[in-house]
């Protein structure tokens, strides 16, 4: 099977479970979002996929091959993370060449173009870069390696608004020119939502949701109205959040709405965006509901 297949992946540190048994698939040529709060388990998943940490159970298959201790499978994936794995004394242009030694066929022209767009001097040494420009350099490498599966762990760390927007445009352009699988792990949902085709939401080491963005949002609703009428309408539905202001109540719903369910004139229905859905799903789990 083509793609990345994750089967019952789990991780424990000592006796603490940091990732419950988790299964999902990443299909070729799609852009995924791995959404979660800080400490939710996003980095654990990405580091487990790329064999950077030992897992406690489960397996990861890349195009049908195990990713564990398998250089052929690992070369198909590239993980950009906040960890700085490059020597401080090495010039950036030299790091491009070192990257090519492992991954092959590095896209130098695109790298030069992106460096110019970001105003990054490739003759600098890595250790002289600011936090933001270290992120920019690693983003450039991620977009220019020939790997089929590009994984980003909080890719915009330290970037200002202009540079974040430039990165999102560069990623979209890269995907159009050379479709491949991108997995973006982030807590900045509003900024990446328009890029995503598929979404995974993780919280407290548990995968809460996995689905196509369009299908997920079709089940995400805000029901608002006088408290009694609104409560009667949402009875039996999956309520993931609630707000009340005076005599008016709002219910956040993740469920299919039955067309046969009568809607009072005083009750309104709106569709949630991805960020609203994320906030209410993770708030509910945080509150233990």
TrEMBL record:
<dbReference type="GO" id="GO:0016887">
    <property type="term" value="F:ATP hydrolysis activity"/>
</dbReference>
<dbReference type="GO" id="GO:0005524">
    <property type="term" value="F:ATP binding"/>
</dbReference>
<dbReference type="InterPro" id="IPR027417">
    <property type="entry name" value="P-loop_NTPase"/>
</dbReference>
<dbReference type="InterPro" id="IPR003593">
    <property type="entry name" value="AAA+_ATPase"/>
</dbReference>
<protein>
    <submittedName>
        <fullName>Multidrug ABC transporter ATP-binding protein</fullName>
    </submittedName>
</protein>
<keyword id="KW-0547">Nucleotide-binding</keyword>
<feature type="domain" description="ABC transporter">
    <location>
        <begin position="4"/>
        <end position="229"/>
    </location>
</feature>
<dbReference type="InterPro" id="IPR003439">
    <property type="entry name" value="ABC_transporter-like_ATP-bd"/>
</dbReference>
<keyword id="KW-0067">ATP-binding</keyword>
<dbReference type="Pfam" id="PF00005">
    <property type="entry name" value="ABC_tran"/>
</dbReference>
